[in-house]
Write a structure and sequence with these properties.
The chain is mainly beta and about 220 residues long. It contains three helices and 15 strands. It has helices spanning about 20-30, 120-130, 175-180, and strands spanning about 10-20, 35-40, 45-50, 50-60, 65-70, 80, 85-90, 110-115, 130-135, 140-145, 155-160, 165-170, 185-190, 195-200, 205-215. The strands form two sheets. Strands 9-10-11-8-12-15-14-13 form an eight-stranded mixed beta sheet. It has a seven-stranded mixed beta sheet with strand order 2-3-4-1-5-7-6, with helices on one face.
Length: about 220
């Protein structure tokens, strides 16, 4: 699962790039209960929920999500993988500690890297972050965990697709309600031992998932 201890190779930050931060703030505020706080650089800022950081925003001509992974030491902020997908390298500082909330309603709970060449992607990211990569019988994709963290720290998967992009999933109390608020790419459905999920697209074309995990079934739906 995704946590906020940010061991090397774990997801530590998430960033949305769009050309309209005000519209992004309005959309994600209504859907996920986010509040937006502009930063000093034009077009950049931080989304929060309950006062805790859940994602960032940067000005961009194209629209996409970029996932940043924890590193033990500072390095390049962003790299491009073999499929042309940007990936961030995150070294925590006092000013930039990383995500403040994960795996709770309105925050990041799972990630997928969609790739036309999953095996090549797996080799690239294993060399970059040292990920442990596992196959689960009957489940599509290659499942990811930080090195030495064990299966309980599985945070995402690499899945085969015709296009390459990051697909973040956000925890929500009601998947069907969320799916009624945005165009749907994958209709709400249940996955055994996972929960209920759907894949949506925001007004700028960025794809994202929503999930009510089995671990949150005791939460109220309102």
């Amino acid at each position: 699962m995704i946590t906020t201890d940010f061991v090397p190779g774990a997801p530590a930050w998430l960033e949305l790039g769009t050309s309209d931060e005000a519209a992004a703030a309005e959309f994600y505020g209504a859907l996920l209960g986010w509040e937006y706080h502009p930063a000093g650089t034009p077009g950049s800022g931080v989304f929060t929920r309950g006062g805790l950081a859940v994602a960032g925003h940067v000005a961009a001509q194209g629209t996409s999500w970029t996932v940043h992974f924890a590193a033990a030491a500072p390095g390049p902020d962003r790299l491009t993988d073999p499929d042309g997908v940007e990936v961030g390298v995150w070294a925590a500082t006092v000013e930039s500690a990383g995500l403040g909330a994960v795996s709770t309603p309105g925050s990041l709970t799972w990630i997928e890297l969609h790739s036309p060449a999953p095996s090549a992607s797996a080799a690239f990211y294993r060399s970059l972050f040292g990920w442990e990569i596992a196959l689960i019988p009957g489940a599509p994709g290659q499942f990811l965990a930080p090195a030495g963290a064990g299966p309980g720290r599985m945070f995402g998967a690499i899945v085969a697709d015709t296009q390459a992009f990051w697909l973040p999933y956000f925890e929500v109390a009601d998947v069907d309600q969320a799916a009624a608020s945005a165009p749907v790419l994958l209709a709400p459905h249940d996955l055994d031992d996972v929960g209920r999920i759907a894949v949506l697209v925001d007004p700028f074309g960025a794809r994202f998932g929503v999930m009510r995990s089995v671990t949150t079934e005791s939460l109220p739906k309102s």
